[in-house]
Amino acid sequence: MSGERPLEVTIDDRAIEHLLAFTAEQGMHDLLMVSDENTYAALGARVEAALSEAGRDLISVIHTGEEVVADARYIFHTLLAADPKPRTYIAVGSGTVTDITRFVSHRTHSSFISMPTAPSVDGFASIGAPLIIDGVKETVICHAPIAIFADINTLANAPQALIAAGLGDMLGKYTSIADWRLGRLFWGEPYDEEIAQRTLAAVQLCVDNVDAIGADEPEGIRKLLEGLIESGYCMLDFGSSRPASGAEHHYSHLWEMKLLREGRPAILHGAKVGVATVLVAGLYDRIRAMSRNEAADLMEASDWSNADVEMTRIRTAYGDQAEDVMAAHQRFLNLTPEESDAIKRQILAHWDEVQEIAAHVPPPDVVADYLRRAGGPTTVAELGLSDEEQALAEQSGHYLRDRFTVRKLARALDI
After folding, report:
1. Which CATH architecture has domain 162-413?
2. Cα–Cα–Cα angle for 84, 139, 383, nearest 5°?
3. Which of 15, 303, 351, 365 has its CA 20 to 30 A from that of 373?
4. Where in the chain is the domain with CATH 3.40.50.1970?
5. Chunked in runs of 10, what are the mean pLDDT values of the chain (415 residues)?
6. DSSP per-residue string spanning 170-199
């Protein structure tokens, strides 16, 4: 499954001009713009004024509240503002606003245009909308925007935390690609080497410009957004989030769900992913240094196939959401001892390949250095999370997806 790429993508200082020209060429007179209070101030007010001056029929939805999240409440309020008239949606914002707009436009059989206000996530060009559904983070397949018009000055003047979050989201591709390769080896997951290489090239583009990104230089910011958009294209072309989301995203999702459940302030997605990437890179570092004999000894003592142990961990980590998590994790929970032993034999048979995969993940101190140079956090403490919350993500984040990641490998190794 794949989706259609945007018809037009621009990153310059004429985003509103491009929007006006594109909507005129496409005969788009009736529009609905979605923003929040911050993104409306950053760009939305100017977009609204330009469209109104051009005589367009525009509904403007400005979400309010300290934390706007892609959940039922904000989705409903977006739908509530719409009228029966067919309209093209415009998302003026970063990840959350785009995800709300992507979902609502898809479900109302409408197209949407993305106008990013910060280079903070890789979801602008993708088909997936990560939503909070009954407290669980789930990616719902929708559609890509028909156009992306990015204002470089707005992006470069975004808060540094948002820019660093974008780099964090990109650095996560180092571990997501490694996890994807493990999934192909041991779980029969669909895989595409060309897309994997494209994703890694997009990461390299950002790493090569990390100091310019940290200094908010327009050219560095442009490269960061180009990398984020290319990562979105990779998901779009492959038809799922596998090229861009592995164990590091599972840590992030668990933390996000826990914060929401406890009524605590949200933490930027890319900031969580960046810190999680440091942790997951550390796990790959351990595996890279492990011999086949050491792996065999560890797996001999592992109780990985014990479903009761697994379900106890899920209930401890997810509370009221545990049943939903277990329902999505049945393939692993139903592994028989024989199937578990077969996977362990596969791991040992492919240990050289496992170490080769691990060797392509930068050491954790290198990942942390990139984050630091962009002004982002590098530890769970800097995120405002505890050591216990780090351990919880490491032990139980992998239950959120039916994928074989390095955390599944670590579970088989009992490390």
Report:
1. Up-down Bundle (1.20)
2. 115
3. 15
4. 8-157
5. 80 98 98 98 98 98 92 96 96 95 97 97 90 87 96 97 98 98 96 98 98 97 97 92 95 94 92 98 97 95 82 91 90 89 94 97 98 98 98 94 93 89
6. HHHHHHHHHHHHHHHHHH-----HHHHHHH
